Amino acid sequence: SAGVELSVNNHAADFTLSTGLSPAISLSCLVHNSSQAEELLWYRGAGQVDLKDGNKVNISNICISPVNESDNGVTFTCRLARDKAVQVSVTLDVQFPPQLSGEETLQVEEEKDVTLTCNSRSNPQGQSTWLKDNQSLTLQQSHHKLYQTSEVFQLSISKVQKSDNGTYTCLVESRLGKGTRDFHLIVEDKKPVFPKEAVIAAVVVVTITILFGIVAQKDKFLKVW
């Protein structure tokens, strides 16, 4: 295979193909500098793509249809069948506006902690912020805490109060658009705490009292018997 080269979409070296969400894109692999018929192989990541018989020799085309978010970052590689070291790879850079998800309604007891989790996917990554009842949320250092990764944006509220009731909106904006997700937080009345320790202590006292009463009346019980 000395001197044999491949190209994908006229690129003789590995490259990145930027695209948006689209119905389809095609990749064409072509053999160069070969005097014989060369079989070609296509891979999506580590998995081999199934090609039809008429689409394997000297030139081979594959179609990605439709192009969606799951294709972002995926690498397609064309290889020479008899020498897999001869190859060209293309990595898809699929750009799309923010797409958000997360649990819409959360109910929490007063004075308990709660976390609102906004799952966010976008390429390029967007800027995130929280609103409360359509107004910018004023963060209180000891009451609110933010956590963010490339795909998760969380708002934690410590010891919620009735004033925390309301609709919280996760807003993510990028140059391709914006996405919003509403979270309805319902703060319920604090349930009365069952005095478990006091009840246990009372049971112990009653039990001991009964035992002492039985011991004190032991002679009378024996006479009756």
UniProtKB/TrEMBL annotation:
It is a single-pass type I membrane protein. Gene3D superfamilies: Immunoglobulins (2.60.40.10). GO terms for cellular component: cell-cell junction; plasma membrane. Residues 25-91, 98-188 form the Ig-like domain. It is found in: Membrane. The keyword Lyase does not apply. This is TMIG1 protein. It comes from Agelaius phoeniceus. The gene is Tmigd1.
